[in-house]
Amino acid sequence: xxxxxxxxxxxxxxxxxxxxxxxxxxxxKLGSATVHEAMGRVxxxxxxxxxxxxxxxxxxxxxxxxxxxxxxWMLHVAAEQIQPGDVVVAALTAECTDGFxxxxxxxxxxxxxxxxxxxxxxxxxxxxxxxxxxxxWSRAISAKGCIKSTLGSVNIPVICAGALVNPGxxxxxxxDGVVVVPSLDAARVAEVAERREALEEEKxxxxxxxxxxxxxxxxxxxxxxxxxxYID
Length: 232
Fold this sequence. Notes:
The chain is an alpha/beta fold.
């Protein structure tokens, strides 16, 4: 008897509906923490997903890939489905930290217009990837290579580092982590996140002028009610 997962193996969906490009770009500029808060503190991938080099920040639409442990065959298949502005999101059927991705695949992805890779596994050739300017968020870094023999799938819903990612969703990634925004909600979340960012700018200016968070957030009364005492 076939299972739902088995029914999703060995397929490539060529035509996916991507989130609005403008919303994707706006979300990418705001960063993962702001977007995560704006969505109601949902959509965050596990904190084990770290950038392989610091300072990278992207917002792009997801091309999803389902891989098997130790096998990167479907990353090559996924390259054909990349459009400019996409972020490839790779999930695995079982945990593995092998080096699924390196500079050769990055060269192929960049030629297709990919902005980045998010992979719940390992990558290698980190120095070269940094020199190339290709951002990757991964679970691990490993020199161990992969085989190419097992079919997975491209552009199906996947669970990557604990978060559901559908093809076409917006991926926002930076030094703080990776967040996924459902494609149909991208424009609304971008508006909420921009308002939140503007409010934080106001707060930042007040704090820089010397105003204390105790007063700006009106914390003194609830602290006193909680029993906080000052002793001179």
